[in-house]
């Protein structure tokens, strides 16, 4: 055995040279790995070996670039140097793949002459998820080997194709037995030598590209079919352009030049910076400074959910999906039956639902009308009406029923959890688990720590969130926690803008163009304007009151802020416009023209300012946690990073200056946060704040 460097060895199995990488945890293409590959292949080529196998130790093949190196100065051998060494080898090179071959890892494998994989392997080019495109020839080689349509789909989705699919599309040449990758790869290499098979360079194979030449409709149709999904993102479009270049360029090198140019545009742009930032932010959110990773957790073998409504049912599904039994308690049999029937319908409607899978999950759910059914639960989550007196009554009962050590959780979206915990004899076991609706779909879970919440309860909740497929962020107790507290700022300004001269569809359009899935008024129509509206108490004092009194309650009644056709397509409503004009007249408001720029600044800058207040109060650990909440819970476009990242992008000094300008003109709704003032005074950004 020859040790090439600390992560690479060169060994022999008869006439086959084996270059082995071992750079935990995922053999990422760091400078050390690139150097080892370059020198390993150089020595293997210079030896008397007849073929070369590239294989990786550990749990995976090369799982991608080392993104911690992005933006820094290049050290050691470049990736194109390594690829050229492999591709131009006079001896056949076989890449042996297990785990995942992703991004730069797959781009390296595409420079081998052949590829073998175990059945459990997965291959993909997921750079689009970081706002990038494959920058080491992937956009040029993948369509040559897999075909244009398949390459477009894989590159713009970032999907990992299973080995069986990779074999069918020609991306893999042979599947070898699980657990016997090295033996299988060496045997395959021996066969190549014995049969004197040609050295197949992917870059020279234009057959599948020829089939797409002269068919621009392939790209036009693909763009059209995915327009909604790709809206606002640059990276999918740039990936498409690279595949177009592969088809239409006179040579591989010409296509490669297009790839390089577009890669650098993305790499130096704000969208990829935002998406790379978010990638780390999501991982960082799991780290809680005073709750170390080795904090013991409580076993959660059975969960209780109080309430079988939309929220309770959705919460229950999360646990059933993870194989954890759930008992759902309701007050009336009719409500319980309806809740369980809705859950069943949700399972049956889900894409690719198999009857046996539905039955398996439903078998984990049981119902009861007696709260004593919670006696043996390890975690109980209440999802009852959002009123403090009701919550306190529930927690008094749970305290008496639940076993010692059971975690008592509230799904409140805004109420004071310390007050809720105060009615129990075990405030250390009480925590907020704020699921977002629909709870079986939305990824975000705000884990809300009260004054007395025990550290093992926090650790258990964070770990459990991961187990049930949620992205958890820890928040402190304050009205609305992180997400809804910031949302309130946007809602207030959206409503004020309408009273001052904008129309609901103006506000919605600006926020939609910014990247949100929909604006606040379209969202209200979707949710239903009558949520929380009480007919008997309504007196036409608000715009919502008037709309609800006219039975304009949103999409469900065919009219709300907007008018809707039979397909629920929205169009601006002259009725709403007249109501707004009457309101303004009654209040003596002279409507003015409001620019799109003011709408955006008025809606977004107070959100950034409120985030600063949340940070200075210690209700969020770090700015990036706020961004994770807003990307996952409220549709903030990931290519803009989140409100705090966006604040840094705009510049805290500009945000502060605008808040001061608005405060002088419109009052203390715009009072700048002390933290924002401090950052500007010190010439710092939110990203300079360390947890």
Please give a structural write-up.
This protein has 691 residues and is an alpha/beta fold. Helix content is 47%, strand content 12%. The chain is built from 29 helices and 20 strands. The strands form four sheets. The protein has an eight-stranded mixed sheet, with helices on both faces. The protein has a seven-stranded mixed sheet with strand order 1-2-3-4-5-7-10, with helices on both faces. A hairpin with a 2-residue loop joins strand 2 and strand 3. Helix 5 (148-157) runs antiparallel to helix 11 (235-248), helix 13 (270-284) crosses helix 26 (623-633) and helix 14 (310-321) crosses helix 15. The mean pLDDT is 95.
Keywords for this entry:
single chain, 691 residues, alpha/beta, eight-stranded mixed β-sheet, seven-stranded mixed β-sheet, 29 helices, 12% strand
Mean pLDDT: 95
Major sheet: arrangement of strands: 13-12-11-14-15-16-17-18
- Unreliable runs: none
Percentage of residues in strands:
5-15%
- Fraction of helical residues: 40-55%
Please give the count of helices. Answer: 29
The total strand number stands at 20
First-to-last CA distance = 46 Å
Radius of gyration: 29 Å
* Structural classification: alpha/beta
Name the overall outline.
Answer: globular
Summarize the model shown.
The protein is an alpha/beta fold and 691 residues long. It has 29 helices and 20 strands. Strand 14 (379-382), helix 17 (388-401) and strand 15 (407-410) form a beta-alpha-beta unit.
């Amino acid at each position: 055995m020859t040790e090439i460097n600390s992560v690479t060895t060169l060994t022999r199995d008869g006439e086959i040279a084996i270059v082995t990488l071992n750079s935990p945890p995922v053999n990422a293409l760091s400078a050390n790995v690139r150097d080892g590959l370059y020198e390993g292949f150089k020595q293997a080529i210079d030896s008397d070996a007849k073929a070369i196998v590239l294989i990786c130790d550990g749990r995976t093949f090369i799982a991608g670039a080392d993104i911690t190196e992005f933006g820094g100065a290049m050290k050691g051998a470049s990736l194109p140097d390594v690829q050229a060494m492999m591709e131009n080898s006079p001896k056949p090179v076989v890449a042996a793949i297990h785990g995942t071959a992703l991004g730069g890892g797959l781009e390296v494998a595409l420079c081998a002459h052949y590829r073998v994989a175990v059945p459990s392997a997965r291959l993909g080019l997921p750079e689009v998820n970081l706002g990038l495109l494959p920058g080491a020839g992937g956009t040029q080689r993948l369509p040559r080997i897999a075909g244009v349509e398949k390459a477009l789909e894989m590159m713009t989705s970032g999907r990992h194709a299973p080995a069986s699919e990779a074999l069918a599309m020609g991306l893999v040449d042979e599947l070898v037995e699980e657990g016997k990758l090295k033996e299988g790869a060496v045997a395959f290499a021996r066969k190549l030598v014995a049969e004197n098979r040609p050295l197949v360079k992917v870059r020279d194979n234009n057959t599948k590209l020829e089939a797409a030449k002269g068919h621009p409709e392939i790209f036009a149709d693909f763009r059209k079919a995915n327009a909604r999904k790709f809206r606002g993102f640059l990276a999918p479009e740039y990936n498409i352009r690279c595949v177009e270049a592969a088809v239409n360029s006179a040579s591989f090198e010409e296509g490669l030049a297009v790839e390089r140019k577009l890669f650098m545009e993305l790499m130096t742009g704000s969208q990829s910076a935002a998406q790379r930032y978010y990638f780390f932010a999501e991982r960082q959110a799991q780290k809680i400074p005073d709750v170390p990773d080795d904090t013991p957790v409580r076993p959660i073998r059975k969960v209780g959910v109080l309430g079988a409504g939309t929220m309770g049912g959705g919460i229950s599904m999360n646990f059933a999906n993870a194989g954890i039994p759930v008992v759902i308690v309701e007050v009336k049999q009719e409500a319980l039956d309806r809740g369980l029937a809705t859950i069943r319908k949700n399972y049956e409607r889900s894409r690719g639902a198999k009857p046996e899978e539905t039955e398996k999950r439903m078998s984990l759910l049981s119902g009861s009308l007696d709260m004593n059914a919670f006696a043996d639960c390890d975690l109980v989550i209440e999802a009852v009406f959002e009123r403090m007196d009701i919550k306190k009554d529930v927690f008094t009962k749970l305290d008496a029923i639940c076993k010692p050590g059971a975690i008592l959780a509230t799904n409140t979206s805004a109420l004071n959890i310390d007050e809720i915990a105060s009615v129990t004899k075990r405030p250390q076991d009480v925590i907020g688990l704020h699921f977002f609706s629909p709870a079986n779909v939305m990824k975000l879970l705000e884990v809300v720590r009260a004054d007395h919440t025990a550290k093992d309860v926090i650790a258990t909740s964070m770990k459990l969130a991961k187990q049930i497929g949620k992205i958890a962020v820890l928040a402190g107790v304050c009205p609305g926690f992180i997400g809804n507290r910031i949302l309130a700022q946007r809602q207030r300004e959206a409503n004020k803008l309408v009273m001052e001269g904008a129309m609901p569809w103006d506000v919605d359009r600006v926020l939609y163009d910014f990247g949100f899935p929909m604006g606040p008024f379209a969202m209200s129509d979707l949710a239903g304007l009558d949520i929380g509206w009480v007919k008997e108490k309504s007196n036409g004092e608000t715009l919502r009151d008037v709309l609800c009194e006219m039975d304009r309650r949103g999409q469900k009644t065919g009219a709300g802020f907007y008018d809707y056709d039979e397909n629920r397509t929205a169009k601006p409503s002259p009725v709403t416009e007249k109501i707004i004009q009457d309101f303004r007249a009654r209040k003596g408001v002279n409507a003015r023209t409001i620019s799109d720029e003011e709408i955006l600044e008025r809606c977004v800058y107070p959100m950034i300012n409120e985030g600063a207040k949340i940070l200075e109060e210690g209700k969020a650990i770090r700015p990036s946690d706020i961004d994770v909440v807003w990307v996952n819970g409220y549709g903030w476009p990931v290519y803009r990073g989140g409100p705090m990242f966006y604040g840094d992008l705009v510049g805290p000094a500009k945000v502060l200056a605008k808040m001061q300008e608005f405060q002088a003109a419109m009052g203390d709704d715009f009072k700048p946060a002390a933290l924002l003032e401090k950052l500007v005074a010190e010439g710092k950004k939110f990203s300079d704040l360390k947890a």
